[in-house]
Amino acid sequence: MNDNTSPPTDERGGLPSASSFQRLVFCPGSRAAEAAIPHGTIPASDLADAGTRIHDALKTGEIEDLAHNEEQIASKLKEMEEAALAEFCDDFSLEIADMEIIREERFWIAGVTSARVDFAAVHKRLPMALLLDSKTGFLKVTGARENWQLRVGICALNETFGPFETARVAIAQYRLKERFSKCDYDATYLKRAKTEILFYDARSKEEDAPFAAGPWCQYCRAKPTCPTMATYALLPSVFAKTIELKKKDIIARVDTLSLPDLAFIQSRKTFAENLFEAVTKRLKSLPIEELESVGLTLVPTGTIPSIPSIADLWRVLDDAGLISDEEFRGVCKVGLGALYDLLVTRIAGKRECSKSEAEQYLDGLLAPVVKRTPKEPSLKPIKS
């Protein structure tokens, strides 16, 4: 048995970890981009902190100290671990007592990557092992067969306890509902998996390693400043225009979503609002000719009146004999809107005219003392 379980001072040794290896496979350029951003720069989310507490409790066995919802998740994951181990032993005619249980330890593929193992069971005499990754979040994870975190994990475990002839990798996920996925490796597949890991590791070190955005960007530290990710983030809005969904179609699709999906979409509400606000602001800043070239225009939305001098306003109304000094002071305490309504009613009575005619007369009377600031124009499609 090789002893390569001792990590360097830095837990990851400055190397990619199993949890980020899928991103390295699909976006080789992310390695250099993330290297420029120290760990801990982006604070952990409440959901991530809850996941850490759950994993710590599974390791110590002190599940009862968790909050109620976290205890429920930990208890369910514990049941899934026990069921996965029992199934593995039944499938290969093994005894659970002959399995060495490993929790929350880091194993290495020297100089390349490492994996922090949530749960593993290695046979004490036979070249066989089970690796289980426990997930506590809402997002659906990649299945065991295609999962790079598990692939790196079992290869790292193989470096220490192998070579295995048979190994099973599995994912246990519980958040509102249970998900379980498994895949068996033989010795040939383990060798091929390590070869692929070495290939993708080498590709990510190339100076011109390309970038490619996708779901794997979710936990990338370089995401906030990545132009490729910025472009990808706008794709849903472009795609939405091509399918022309009506309100009833949207409602029908929403009715098919699971509770975790609904919660995730709701969590993105602020992002969507900020996106559309930024897009609208940018469009409004462009020359009208450019807007018209894409079928948009700016439509005036009126003005906002203000009165710089109350004294000047009083003089105009006093000269017109529309209101007394005492009445003026009393109504102004309520607000200028109340004053305007009172004057319109009074003018309509005195001049025996309609409300709109009274408003037109009053607006002309107040024009010298009222300042009108144009409202921000509205962005509208050009009507064909």
What does this 3D model show about the protein?
The strands form 3 sheets. Strands 1-2-3-4-5 form a 5-stranded mixed sheet, with helices on both faces. Strands 6-9 form a two-stranded antiparallel ribbon. Strands 7-8 form a two-stranded antiparallel ribbon. Helix content is 49%, strand content 17%. Helix 3 crosses helix 4, helix 5 (148-161) packs across helix 6 and helix 14 (336-351) crosses helix 15. The protein has 3 domains: 18-219, Lambda Exonuclease, Chain A (Alpha-Beta Complex), CATH 3.90.320; 223-296, no CATH class; 309-368, no CATH class. With 384 residues, it is α+β, with helices and mostly antiparallel strands. Mean pLDDT is 84; it is low at 5-9 and 238-243.
